[in-house]
Amino acid sequence: MKDLVRRPPTPRRATVEEAVTLATLVYALVAQATASIDRGEAAPSVDQELLRAASWRAARDGLAGHGIDLGSAQLVPAVDLIRRLLAQLRPDLEELDVYRSVHDALAVTLGRGNGAIRQRRILESGVPSPRWLPTRRGAP
Fold it and tell me: How far apart are CA 105 and CA 51, in angstroms?
């Protein structure tokens, strides 16, 4: 996993890099949660309506918008939530020897936008869509 994350992203591999970075973050989250359970700590209580709202907001806005901070129930720029997550997971990522790789991959993704953001930019640029790609009503 470490070698895949350390490879510099290229336009052809961008979504692969994003997927590997996401998988690494999830792995670190699971490691952190498992360690917490092993210490006998209770899972944080999160209101289910707030969780549904946060999930909806993330799907709607993505990286370009705002997400809901589950601790405060406040809207926060998604980029800030990602930076907080990286800081929270830093010890676990360092233990896996992938912190710098994940940090750098996230910096690239946040700088240029993820796959969804890049696709929206193409759509908004007016570049004609391939015939096989479904279009929105009124879109080229």
Answer: 27
